Amino acid sequence: YVKHYLSEKPFKEFENSKYFLRYLQWKALELRPVNSKTFRMYRVLGKGGFGEVCACQVRATGKMYACKKLEKKRIKKRKGEQMVLTEKQILQKVNSRFIVSLAYAYETKEFLCLILTIMNGGDLKFHIYNMGGECGLGIQRSRFYAAEITLGFEHLHSLGIVYRDLKPENILLDDHGHVRISDLGLAVEIPENEMVRGRVGTVGYMSPEIVDNEKYSYSPDWFSLGCLIYEMIEGKAPFRARKEKVKREEVERRIKYETEIYSKKFTEDSMLICR
């Protein structure tokens, strides 16, 4: 009944309004193929293993995004084809305000381009170490960021995806101070009722089961979140001081056998959650 009613007088009114023309314009835009001409490219925001990230703008709408340009030659040289493909496939599946979103994807002769949510607030590493005064964020801010990261993890895990690369550099802030998980290059889907194995991640944030190359499901994400909460509060990572020159093997030994030290910056609750 509702459909029948709306298809008569209300639709005729819509057809004769300015909104119908705007609707047709948007539908025409929707049908256009996405390529390099769709966007204006601006300054470089950062660099990664396979290329760089630039600010970009959709010419038709003016909306700003971040363009992750992955150089095909570099991908091939480093045998990263599967990693890049997996990242794109996972980005297509996720839908959370706590994980960067994939808006468009296209390729040129030289690059694979992922058009992502733009985050103008810097990364957590900058906020922990470069905001002047004492390093660290305090309990309140650390709790807030940890809660948003947890919601991002819960969404990934509900889709059967383990992230495996949590560190301050991969948590980005937007204009309003909310955070999103970025860089899903090491994320992997876990088959139902199974576990995975893989010695991947960043030294100092890898869980004991990853260090020992054992099978795991989602536990590495929660371990690395504990490391990040510690770092946000203390102003240093739990198993390696900033700029400390120490071998990978020593950091892995500390992760497996040493107990981290808690200063007066920690409350009882924050200590419990890190442990």
UniProtKB/TrEMBL annotation:
In alphabetical order, the GO MF annotations are: ATP binding; G protein-coupled receptor kinase activity
Task: Report keywords, A-Z.
Answer: ATP-binding, Kinase, Nucleotide-binding, Phosphoprotein, Serine/threonine-protein kinase, Transferase
Residues the record lists as binding ATP = K77
Q: What class of enzyme is it?
A: transferase
Say if the entry is tagged with keyword Nucleotide-binding.
Answer: yes
Q: Which SUPFAM superfamilies match?
A: Protein kinase-like (PK-like)
Name the catalysed reactions: [G-protein-coupled receptor] + ATP = [G-protein-coupled receptor]-phosphate + ADP + H(+)
Catalytic center residues: D165 (proton acceptor)
The organism's superkingdom is given as: Eukaryota
For the keyword Calcium, the answer is no
The record's EC number reads 2.7.11.-
Q: What InterPro entries does UniProt report for this protein, alphabetically?
A: GPCR_kinase, Kinase-like_dom_sf, Prot_kinase_dom, Protein_kinase_ATP_BS, Ser/Thr_kinase_AS
Identify the GO cellular component terms for this protein.
cytoplasm
SMART domains per UniProt? S_TKc (SM00220)
Biological processes per GO annotation: regulation of signal transduction; signal transduction
Q: Pfam family example for this protein?
A: Pkinase
Give all residue intervals belonging to the Protein kinase domain.
39-275
Under PROSITE patterns, the record lists: PROTEIN_KINASE_ATP (PS00107), PROTEIN_KINASE_DOM (PS50011), PROTEIN_KINASE_ST (PS00108)
* Similarity section: Belongs to the protein kinase superfamily. AGC Ser/Thr protein kinase family. GPRK subfamily.
* PANTHER family in alphabetical order: G PROTEIN-COUPLED RECEPTOR KINASE 2, G PROTEIN-COUPLED RECEPTOR KINASE/RIBOSOMAL PROTEIN S6 KINASE
The identity of this protein, by name, is G protein-coupled receptor kinase
From which organism does this entry originate?
Euroglyphus maynei
Q: What is the lineage of its organism?
A: Eukaryota, Metazoa, Ecdysozoa, Arthropoda, Chelicerata
